[in-house]
Specification:
With 348 residues, the chain is α/β, with parallel strands linked by helices. It has two domains: 3-151 and 334-347, Glycogen Phosphorylase B (Rossmann fold); 159-331, Rossmann fold (3-Layer(aba) Sandwich), CATH 3.40.50.2000. The protein is built from 15 helices and twelve strands. It has a six-stranded parallel beta sheet with strand order 2-1-3-4-5-6, sandwiched between helices. Strands 9-8-7-10-11-12 form a six-stranded parallel beta sheet, sandwiched between helices. The radius of gyration is 21 Å and the shape is elongated.
Length: 348
């Protein structure tokens, strides 16, 4: 017997988007389709809301009324629009609504608004990416919050494929949206400062990802001031992340978005590549990274330079972390996590 599912999220139309929301929505669709013809998928692409509003309304209407299950995957702005609509659909037409949360602020929204708590409680499941978020939602009375790790279809390396040594100079990489709030300027400054203080090119930094428009001038200035130690290398598709990141010694994640990050895809990419991470702590940092085992975590922006220097001075320890990263990558493998989601949708 077939089960019809309407997936509402940002697919990006025919454009190429590399942000976490779009990648997650596309991954969810792939996970649903991977279970075979038992699931029939209807897409409602929120990208069309502004570009092609009538097309979006048609797709949404057809999808919602044709499907017994609805899977919602939208950010905060989308939740404001779709929560009340789908809550009513669930009540009046007995639709089973599943919500896959994006980001780490859902509990804050629920704490601030009784309506949000009511909407969430009216859904079948609210899958969240962190244990902390699950606990916080349940403490607010939202008993249908359930931890389900963010996941990707990634080619996890084998221990035999891992480089055994750290390059000299140490090769650092950033693989994310390129903006001030992602801490990219902090990383450029840390690498540049480290090289000036050591009197040599001790570390180099390659940056991959879409550049936020208001950060272009700062990025260009930082690259120019680095003495060729920092390069902007363009964008890479999510399916090629491991093949790129595996060539580096350490991934930098100097985010300034403490309370907004969920379980970032770039950390999953690094773990699957066997590459340790130097990260500024965000709310769920300790659920993904173990300080001293899969990387180094710090609190203040100026500490990034310290941990870069520490990694340089402890090359053998950094190399030894690689196998730990591969082991930690397992729980974010879609082949393990996706069947849990698919089974719950089909069972309803």
């Amino acid at each position: 017997m077939k089960t019809n599912v309407c997936l509402i999220g940002h697919f990006g139309g025919n454009e190429r988007f590399l942000d976490g929301q779009t990648v997650k929505t596309q991954t969810l669709e792939r996970a649903l389709r991977s279970c075979g013809p038992e699931l029939v998928i209807y897409r409602a692409d929120t990208y069309d809301c502004r570009k092609h509003p009538w097309k979006f309304l048609r797709d949404l209407t057809v999808g919602v009324f044709s499907c017994s299950r609805i899977l919602l995957c939208v950010s905060r702005r989308g939740r404001r629009v779709f929560f009340p609509i789908l809550f009513v659909m669930a009540k009046l037409f007995h639709k089973r609504v599943f919500h896959s949360a994006i980001g780490g602020k859902l509990a804050d929204e629920a704490r601030e608004s009784r309506k949000v708590r009511v909407y969430l409680s009216g859904f079948q499941k609210n899958w969240v990416e962190s244990r902390e978020l699950e606990r916080n939602l349940r403490a607010l009375g939202i008993e249908n919050a359930e931890y389900l790790p963010n996941f990707k279809f990634l080619p996890v390396l084998t221990p035999e494929e891992l480089p055994q040594e750290v390059h000299k100079p140490m090769r650092c990489v950033i693989f994310s949206r390129v903006s001030a709030e992602k801490g990219v300027g902090d990383a450029i400054d840390a690498v540049t400062q480290l090289n000036r203080e050591t009197g040599e090119t001790a570390a180099v930094l390659d940056i991959y990802g879409p550049v936020q428009e208001d950060f272009r001038a700062e990025l260009a200035g930082g690259v120019a001031a680095s003495g060729q130690a920092v390069r902007y290398c363009g964008t890479v598709g999510p399916d090629d992340s491991v093949s790129v990141i595996r060539e580096y010694d350490v991934l930098l994640f100097p985010t300034r978005r403490y309370g907004q990050e969920g379980m970032p895809g770039t950390i999953m990419d690094a773990l699957a590549s066997g590459v340790p991470v130097i990260a500024r702590r965000w709310r769920c940092c300790d659920e993904m990274l173990t300080h001293g085992e899969t990387g180094y975590c710090y609190d203040q922006p100026q500490m990034l330079r310290h941990w870069l220097e520490y990694a340089l001075s402890h090359r053998e320890a950094l190399a030894a972390m690689k196998s730990n990263c591969l082991a930690a990558a397992g729980k974010y493998d879609a082949r393990t996590a996706a069947p849990v989601m698919v089974r719950q949708i089909m069972e309803g």
